[in-house]
Amino acid sequence: MTLFVSTLAFFLFLLLGKVLLFINEAFYILVLLYVLYLFLLKFFIKKGNCSAIQVYDYFYVGFFVLLCIFFLYNRQEVFSLVSVAYLYMSSFISMMLYIDTLRFKSLF
Fold this sequence. Notes:
By secondary structure, the protein is an all-alpha fold.
């Protein structure tokens, strides 16, 4: 359920970015990459600590954004620094929904 909510949040951020003209339609394929990345990320999250944001979270999101940039570059899609910054912001908020739920669920 948490994976679905986080993916839905990421998709809604992409829709908002399209409405505000920060990104183009090519970014919608990143939702599939996002789901795969979250599924693999589950094995790297340390469970049972009380801190909401750790330093590793920035690296998880940064690696995802670099992976997206590499993917879009190989598809020869047009993107700018603004679209990359918006992608980082939207993936950070969506990924924090998922990561924090995994961390705090293990405390109960």
